[in-house]
Structure formats: structure tokens, C-alpha cells
Amino acid sequence: MILQAVLYAALIGFVLVVLAIVVLATRRWLLQRSGGTFDCSLRLDRRPSAGMGWVLGIARYSGDSIEWFRVFSFSFKPLRVFLRTELEVQGRREPVASEALGLYDGHVIVEVSEAGEKVEFAMAEEAVTGFLAWLEAAPPGKSRSPL
After folding, report:
1. 50: which of 66, 94, 139, 141 lies 20 to 30 Å off by Cα?
2. Does 2.30.29.30 match the CATH number of domain 36-136?
3. Is the CB of residue 77 less than 8 Å from the CB of residue 96?
4. pLDDT in tens, 82-115
């Protein structure tokens, strides 16, 4: 009797994990179906210790803004929205060893100022090129000087 209860609980747990994976994969597909998305981690924590505070995410271009979504979330609402007119690239760097463990392989870090606040994105080299081109493509008088 106890063995049946344990097996039943394990089966329910397994089904819930599989269901969560299917929902997360479907959410990612729905976010990416319109195009203009790229893998982009974001440093949410402002603590000074290197490597801390990185969250894996997906960024999506939406007109004059970038919408940022957590990878492991069920929400279709972006956690952050960055306006092109408020972004100014400060520099780029390679991740330190402690940061590289929490980021996608091959990503570089782009340091940005958003309305005076420091923000760090980690993205692939190809995404950096697209990001800088997007910033430069702002309407006349609104562009910020990228790297």
C-alpha cells in the first residue's frame, strides 16, 4: 500500500515536470515565432561580487524597445523593457571565470547605461552586432554612439 502511494506520487511528480518542460518550450516558441529574438542574459543583481546576479533570458526587438523575458518563467509579459532612446553603450568585455559558468558559452558582456543606471547584457557576438546596428538605426537625432 505504501509502495503504491510512493509510486503514484513519483508518477505525478514526473508528469508535472514533463508538463512544465512542455509549457516552457511552447512559451519560448511563441515568443520567437515573430522573429527578432536572441538569447540574452541580464545582470539583475547589483552586488559587486563578479559572477553574481546573472539571469538567463530571451530578448526581443519590439519597435524602439527591447523586451527581456526570463528563460525559466511561464509569463508572457517581459520582465524588463529597454527603450532605444535611453540606452547608451559603455563598453564590452569577456566574462570572468565565475561569470562564464552562469552564462551561455561564447557570450560576451555588453555594458550599457539606461537612463543613468548601469545594465549588463550577455549575448553572442552575432547578437552584439545586431544590437549595435539596432541602436544606430534610431531616427535622426535620437541615436546613441555605440562602441
Report:
1. 66
2. yes
3. no
4. 999 899 999 999 998 888 888 888 899 999 988 8
